[in-house]
Amino acid sequence: MSERETAGASGSGRHFTDRSTDHSPDLATGGATRDPSAHREEPEADYGHELVPGLTHTPRRTDIDPKAAKRAERQVLGLFLLSVAGTLVFFIGFYAVQLDSAENVGLSTKLLGGGLGLALFCIGAAAIHWARKLMSGEEVVQERHRLRSSDEERAAVIKDFQRGVEDSGVPRRKAILGGLVAATAPLLLTPIVLLRDLGPLPGRKLRETVWTEGVRILSDVTERPVRVADIPIGGYVAAIPETLLDLPHEGSAQLAERGKSAVMLMRLRPEEIVSQQGDNWGYEGVLCYSRICTHVGCPLGLYEQTTHHMLCPCHQSTFDIADSGRVVFGPAARDLPQLAITVDNDGYLVAKQGFTEPVGPSFWERG
Amino acid sequence: MAAAVVVLLALLVTGGAYAVLASASRAEANARAAQSLQIDEGRELFLENCSSCHGLRSEGTSDGPTLIGVGAAAVDFQVGTGRMPLAAPGVQAKQGPVQFTAEEIAALAAYIASLSPGPAIPTEEQLAYEDANLGEGGELFRTNCATCHNFAGQGGALTQGKYAPSLEGVDPKRIYEAMLTGPEAMPEFADTTLTPEAKQAIIKYLKTIEAQPDPGGVGLGRIGPVSEGLAAWLIGIGALIAVAVWIGARSS
Fold this sequence. Notes:
The complex is a heterodimer. Chain A is α+β, with helices and mostly antiparallel strands.
């Protein structure tokens, strides 16, 4: 006990290495150097002294108790054996499982992944456990030289730079410097010009849809015209314009137009409708709104008939269908565009006019 | 002689016709009596169990909506899945143990249907989905249902604690009835806009994807990269952090 006390008391003075002043070249070689005096004077088994200033070393149980060390050794060995078992599981998954049904394919996948994962993890865990419990646990100091270059080196670099500036003649030949700037400035514009190659300009395409006066509203997928009486109160119909079907099905024309002109019909009790985007844009409680979210253009359809709220499944923007498609929650910045509807002579729902504003998400030139 | 034969024949025809007609109308009368008996029983059940919220004439109160026009299908769905009678007031009726026998539910449905026309309980013929168009069913499901119920029918969250339930393992009849009647926040998809064939196609799609195994491992709700990424990041990164902490900790 007295020996430990003396070591601790004198330790800070004896072992401290002043790194702020001492950066002699021989220390710059790096490497872990244990303070040699500590080992010369202290018995090997005695811990509790300060090897590193401010850090008291406490021995681990495996350092003191040989039984604990033996146990740790067995644990490391056990982990290595478990790794072997994992590798065996991998081979079983590969060779023993017949891939004759989807269930067996799933079983094989799980055995391959689980086995390989177990094998690799156990090797790593064993190595870490080995190092933590059985290898030396003493704190060591690694000496480093200072990062700042010597004054001579710094002066030499500055001298070299100044000689280069003088050599180029820039202070005397200012016109050359001007030429360099004139040559590089237009070059910076080339990447911006290349952006024009990304595709044709959209023109009016973002502002127009195939909805015009008298276009019939068809139910989506089943492509049937819709009468008012077909939609019950609280009903919802995903719909498309009849003119969409005139576009060629091959290629992207119909798909691109569908991305703009998809709409939805909802029927409310007339007294529940608070406001609409135009006078009589609905028809006997049937309202027609764009099905494209004004945030980033996801297809809407999460409709709560009890609250008349239409949610976007992507980012939870919420529009109040009973109140002009107003945004009541979420990141959407603009109200949902409403399509004015009426019925034709056969009693089918048709558009009274096209959309009066661009549908879908905002875009740069939209204004 | 001829006159006697004619009279005899005439008597036979008249008597026979009377007998046939009389028995037919009696059968009809019996059926009507049975039906009205069922409606009476339904009204009794309604007054005892439902009227405190839905009103004595099912006109609705501040505690429950009107049942005028909801039809037999809505009653069969709500009572048949144990959502009604409501166990406790909340944002949404939860599925629970069914409180009535099949006969009692039929009686309640008959009573509500007798008040005003509404969607009827789908017949066996309407529920025969085996020959429906699977591809169209998938397209219809993704267009009309997937935004709430998720594109694999796993269900999803709505606003303020409401939710769209999972459709996995749900009886085709209940799926059909739900589309027909629009329970709770769900909109109604009437047979006029979503035809019986379209509904069968949707049911076929749901039953087909339900039977598909997950050969790659755990399905994670089958909602694709979002749930898979979330699991990988939370569980995977969590495990890595735990291991890093273990490596860096001082050994005792």
